[in-house]
Description:
243 residues; five-stranded parallel beta sheet; five-stranded mixed beta sheet; 34% helix; 23% strand; globular
Amino acid sequence: MDDLWLIGIGTGSPVHVTLEGMQALRDAALILVPHKGDGKDALAALRYGIIEASGAQAEIRSFDYPVRDPALPYGRGVIEWHDEIARRWVAAMQSAPPGSVALLVWGDPSLYDSTLRIAERMEPRPRLRVVPGITAIQALTAAHAIPLNTVNGPVKITTGRQLRDHGWPDGEETVVVMLDAECSFQGLDPEGLQIWWGAYLSSETQALEAGSLAEVGGRIVERRAQLRARHGWIMDTYLLRRV
């Protein structure tokens, strides 16, 4: 295996995969599909659905995705987790058929995704091709029919961990929060803040909430917990704006 193709698949809907992405799936010799366990079979099923929709004839191999050790300090835990993922990729690619290997990446490989960093750990290191995808931010703003930025206004993209540890970023007007499993907006002063939240974006189970943070924040927390319990997993993001 010389070439590894990282194909952005948006929020898991076939309509989010670009024509270039669909063609890449058809051209690949091998497609890897991670299985994350713990009731998350639906995540693999979405990938298989995209592969089927593309008309790909490649060999498909699955592998079990490792779990980050929560007992380790966060930084060290992430490093060891990524090392193990890279090892499992290499193992899954052993005796691959001639041609390129494809991995389907949620959202876009460039935005709060570690696939590119994990690929750098592989030995031997493959040639990388990145096929961009729809980001969760694009899907969120489209679902709510809102612009990402105000007129001539900047946008801060951050994580739930950063919001919890440091609060509202100084001088920012619009903040997009990703990778937030704890609804970290609960630690903010809600005065003057609007929120647009979305989960399972662009899917049949899409869930949306919008309004002043003071009014809808609690409802988002409750609804998120209910949805995660029902589906066994959740992918969500939100945009906060001072008004």
